[in-house]
C-alpha cells in the first residue's frame, strides 16, 4: 500500500478533490437509491451503494494507470481514437440501445458492458483538437492550415452526437471553441463558427416546430426550452422534475436535513443521477451545495495552474480542454437543479450514479494528472521537452 501511495504523482489537490467528490457520491447515491434498491433488489438497500463503491474503486485504478503514462503518447492515441469514434457513433445512431427516444448506448458483446459512445468520442476529440492546435501553431492564423484541420473533426463528431444527445454535443462544441481561442486561432473564424452554431440551433428549433418526426428528440428539446422560458403556461407534468428539485432545495435550508433524511428522493425522478445535486442540497443544505460547487471551481483552478506550468502547447491545451469540459458539465447539472437552466440530462461528474461514465471521467482526470506529473519531472530535471513543442512559438 505504501508503495502504491508513493507512486501517486501529479497535483495532490486534484487527488484530494476526487476523493472528497467520491465520498459525496457514495453518501448521496446511498441516500437517493434506498427505496429503489428495496423495491428492485429484494430489500437489499445497500445494493447500489456497493455497486457505486466498486465502480469508483475501478475508476481510481484507471485514473492511477492513466496518470502513469506520459501525456505526449495521448497525442498519438488521439488519431486512432478519433477514427474509431466515428463508426462507433454511427452504429449507436442506427442500432444503439434506445432510451427516451434516443439511441445513446452501445453494448459490448460477451462481457455485456453498456457505455455511451459519446463519452469515448468526447475524450478523443478534445485530445485530437489539442494535438492539431499544438502542431500547427506556426500556421494557426491561416484558414486552410490552421482553422480547417481543427474544426472539421469537431463538426463531424458533434453532428453525430447531436441527434441523440443535444446537450453533450453543445458542451463539446463550446469546449472546442474555447480550446481554439486559447490556441490562438484567428478570432474572426471563431466568431463565424459561433454564428454557424447559433444558426444551427435556430434551424433545429424550426425543424421541431414544422416537422418533429424528422428528429424524434427535437420535440423533447422544444418542450424543455418552452417550459423553462414560460413556466406559467407549462403543465404540472412538464415541470414536475424541476418542481420537486425546488422543494428539495428549499426544504434543505442553510445546513440541510442531515445525511439520509431526504424526503424528495421518493418523488424526484432520477434523484441519483440528473438531479442528485438537489438531494445533496436537501441533506447538506446550501452550505453543502456551495462546498460541491467550490470543489469543482478549485479543480478548474488547479487545471489552469497545470496548463500554465506546462512547457508544451499540447499538454496545456489537453489539460485545459478536458478540465473545462468536466467543470462545464458540472456547472450545467447544478444550474438545472436550481432551475437556472433547462433540463439537459447531464450528470454530475464523479457524483451521479453511473458506470462507464465515471470510468471515462476518471480516465480524463488521469490524463490531466499525467500532464501535472510530467511537469514535476521536467521541473526537477530541467531537460525534458514536450515533443509537440519543439520549434514552435509559445501560445499567447
Characterization of this structure:
With 396 residues, the protein is mainly alpha-helical. It has helices at 2-6, 12-32, 34-40, 47-68, 73-95, 117-135, 143-161, 166-182, 187-210, 218-229, 240-252, 276-309, 313-337, 356-381, and strands at residues 97-99, 102-108, 113-116. It has 2 domains: 1-68 and 251-381, no CATH class; 71-238, no CATH class. It has a 3-stranded antiparallel β-sheet. Strand 2 (102-108) and strand 3 form a beta hairpin. The protein is globular. Residues 383-396 have low confidence and may be disordered.
Q: What descriptors fit this protein?
A:
396 residues, 2 domains, single chain, mainly alpha, 3-stranded antiparallel beta sheet
Q: Could you describe the largest sheet, including whether it forms a barrel?
A: 3 strands, antiparallel
Termini Cα gap:
43 Å
Tally of distinct domains: 2
Total helical elements: 14
Average per-residue pLDDT, rounded, comes to 83
**Helix/strand order, N-terminal first:** HHHHHEEEHHHHHHHHH
Portion in helices: 55-70%
Radius of gyration: 21 Å
Structural class: mainly alpha
Architecture blueprint of SSEs:
Elements: H1 2-6, H2 12-32, H3 34-40, H4 47-68, H5 73-95, E1 97-99, E2 102-108, E3 113-116, H6 117-135, H7 143-161, H8 166-182, H9 187-210, H10 218-229, H11 240-252, H12 276-309, H13 313-337, H14 356-381
Antiparallel strand pairs: 1-2, 2-3
Helix pairs in contact: 2-4, 2-12, 4-14, 5-6, 5-7, 6-7, 6-8, 6-13, 7-8, 8-9, 8-13, 9-10, 11-12, 12-13, 12-14, 13-14
Amino acid at each position: 500500500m505504501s508503495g502504491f501511495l508513493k507512486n501517486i504523482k501529479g497535483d495532490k489537490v486534484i487527488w484530494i478533490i476526487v476523493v472528497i467528490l467520491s465520498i459525496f457520491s457514495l453518501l448521496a447515491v446511498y441516500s437517493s437509491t434506498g427505496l429503489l434498491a428495496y423495491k428492485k433488489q429484494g430489500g437489499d438497500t445497500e445494493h447500489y451503494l456497493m455497486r457505486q463503491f466498486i465502480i469508483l474503486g475501478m475508476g481510481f485504478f484507471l485514473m492511477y494507470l492513466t496518470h502513469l503514462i506520459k501525456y505526449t503518447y495521448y497525442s498519438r492515441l488521439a488519431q486512432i481514437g478519433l477514427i474509431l469514434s466515428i463508426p462507433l457513433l454511427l452504429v449507436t445512431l442506427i442500432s444503439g440501445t434506445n432510451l427516451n427516444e434516443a439511441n445513446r448506448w452501445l453494448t459490448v458483446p460477451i462481457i455485456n458492458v453498456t457505455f455511451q459512445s459519446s463519452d469515448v468520442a468526447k475524450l478523443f476529440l478534445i485530445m485530437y483538437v489539442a494535438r492539431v492546435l499544438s502542431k500547427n501553431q506556426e500556421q494557426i492564423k491561416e484558414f486552410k492550415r490552421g482553422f480547417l484541420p481543427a474544426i472539421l473533426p469537431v463538426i463531424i463528431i458533434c453532428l453525430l452526437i447531436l441527434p441523440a444527445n443535444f446537450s453533450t454535443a453543445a458542451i463539446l462544441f463550446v469546449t472546442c471553441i474555447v480550446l481554439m481561442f486559447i490556441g490562438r486561432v484567428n478570432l474572426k473564424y471563431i466568431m463565424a463558427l459561433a454564428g454557424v452554431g447559433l444558426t444551427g440551433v435556430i434551424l433545429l428549433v424550426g425543424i421541431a416546430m414544422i416537422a418533429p418526426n424528422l428528429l424524434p428528440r427535437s420535440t423533447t428539446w422544444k418542450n424543455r426550452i418552452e417550459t423553462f422560458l414560460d413556466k406559467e403556461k407549462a403543465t404540472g407534468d412538464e415541470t414536475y422534475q424541476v418542481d420537486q428539485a425546488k422543494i428539495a432545495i428549499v426544504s434543505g435550508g442553510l445546513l440541510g436535513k442531515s445525511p439520509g433524511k431526504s424526503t424528495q428522493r421518493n418523488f424526484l425522478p432520477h434523484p441519483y443521477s440528473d438531479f442528485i445535486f438537489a438531494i445533496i442540497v436537501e441533506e447538506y443544505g446550501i452550505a453543502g451545495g456551495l462546498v460541491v460547487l467550490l470543489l469543482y471551481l478549485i479543480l478548474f483552478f488547479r487545471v489552469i495552474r497545470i496548463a500554465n506550468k506546462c512547457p508544451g502547447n499540447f499538454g496545456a491545451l489537453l489539460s485545459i480542454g478536458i478540465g473545462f469540459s468536466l467543470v462545464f458539465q458540472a456547472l450545467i447539472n447544478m444550474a438545472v437543479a436550481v432551475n437556472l437552466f433547462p433540463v439537459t440530462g447531464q450528470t454530475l461528474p464523479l457524483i451521479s450514479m453511473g458506470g462507464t461514465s465515471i470510468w471515462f471521467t476518471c480516465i480524463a482526470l488521469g490524463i490531466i494528472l499525467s500532464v501535472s506529473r510530467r511537469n514535476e519531472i521536467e521541473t526537477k530535471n530541467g531537460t525534458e521537452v514536450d515533443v509537440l513543442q519543439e520549434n514552435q512559438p509559445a501560445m499567447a
